[in-house]
Design a protein that fits this description.
With 324 residues, the protein is an alpha/beta fold. The chain is built from 12 helices and 10 strands. The structure holds NADPH dihydro-nicotinamide-adenine-dinucleotide phosphate.
């Protein structure tokens, strides 16, 4: 495993990490999660990602049970949560957003579900138009000084909003954000590669990137249609299926996937491995958060570290020609 500095901090995160959105509690129970964490830890993965909203808190409960039963030393890995959407199915106004109240309570609730005494990484899952950014920075700073969180960051914030948070923290000598969690994959590049460049330059912000396989599309398994046991077929995720395969540009995207698979086949590796390894070519990516509903997928994806060396400048150029 390779370890990368999380932005300007001293924390070294594994280049591949593991997340639980959609999967934990829906497709992966505590027993399977325990096996998956065992495999991850054996491969040197040291960061596990979660959020209050994933399966309405159940995902954190599954992760807490599984990590606890492995009895790995708490200082050998990092755990995250995210605050914004709330953990309740129909959250009340005080149970969501980025107010000082909800951030403070969400942190306590996540620690309880995850069975930990502190969160290593705590993210603002989206920007909150109803809360002044200064209030959010203060709330995160307070949690950091109380030892409840170690690093805090944002997820899918605009560059200008992240900059405002940095500037507010600087002005009042508060704990600044360390990382952002944006989507980044072969089908979605603009935010990380273009929008955030000024903020990488000015603040050396770290990133924990999500959906490296575009929710599974970049495994290539949707080329012949939607597999019965895939994410796009899960009850309750019809909205995601629409985004994945029923948008106006779905045909173009599927053609890109077909073309990318030709390169992966030539290299003799799975398209999933090539797609994940490609994310790691970007130096502003601190860690790629993997998702998996099965052990076979997790093992395939963890093997992507070995594919990095196959992505020569010539191959990179061919990949760019397809995705741009
Ligand atoms: P991916 O894009 O990698 O999708 C993972 C899914 O793709 C798996 O659950 C599985 O779904 C399928 N898959 C994975 N590997 C393979 C393979 N080798 N062959 C075939 N199918 C495969 O990542 P996620 O979308 O799961 O995102 C990763 C993590 O990022 C999340 O767990 C979460 O922690 C974080 N995240 C953060 C967000 C944010 O807003 N901050 C938003 C979304 C995710 P299946 O078997 O069901 O088809």
């Amino acid at each position: 495993m390779e370890y990368r500095k999380l932005g300007n901090s001293g924390l070294k995160v594994s280049a591949l990490s593991f997340g639980s959105w959609v999967t934990f509690s829906n497709q992966v129970d505590a027993k399977l999660a325990q096996q998956m964490f065992g495999i991850c830890l054996d491969h040197g993965v040291n960061f596990f990602d979660n959020a209050e909203t994933y399966a309405h808190g159940q995902s954190e409960i599954v992760m807490g049970e599984a990590l606890n039963s492995l009895s790995h030393p708490r200082d050998s890995y990092c755990v995250s949560s995210k605050v914004f959407f709330g953990a309740e199915k129909n959250p009340l106004p005080t149970q969501m957003g980025l107010s000082k109240k909800h951030i403070t309570e969400a942190c306590d609730q996540a620690m309880k579900r995850l069975k930990v005494d502190y969160l290593d990484l705590f993210f603002c899952h989206r920007a909150d138009p109803d809360t002044p950014i200064g209030e959010t920075v203060w709330a995160m700073h307070n949690l950091a000084t109380q030892g409840k969180i170690i690093y805090w960051g944002t997820s899918e914030w605009e560059e200008s909003q992240i900059r405002e948070a940095y500037e507010f923290a600087e002005k009042y000598n508060l704990t600044p954000p360390t990382m952002e969690q944006p989507q980044y994959n072969l089908l979605y590049t603009n935010r990380l590669e273009k929008d955030y460049l000024p903020i990488f330059n000015d603040y050396k912000m770290g990133t924990t990137i999500w959906s490296p396989l575009a929710a599974g599309l970049l495994s290539g398994k949707y080329i012949e249609g939607v597999p019965a046991d895939s994410r796009a077929n899960l009850p309750g995720y019809e909205w995601l299926r629409k985004i994945m395969i029923e948008t106006d540009n779905s045909k173009d995207r599927m053609q890109k996937i077909v073309d990318l698979k030709v390169i992966a086949d030539e290299l003799g590796v799975s398209l999933a491995k090539m797609s994940i390894a490609w994310c790691l070519l970007n130096e502003n990516v601190s860690t790629v958060i993997l998702g998996a509903s099965k052990i076979s997928q997790l093992e395939d994806n963890l093997g992507s570290m070995e594919v990095l060396k196959l992505l020569t400048p010539e191959i990179e150029k061919r990949i760019r020609a397809i995705i741009e």
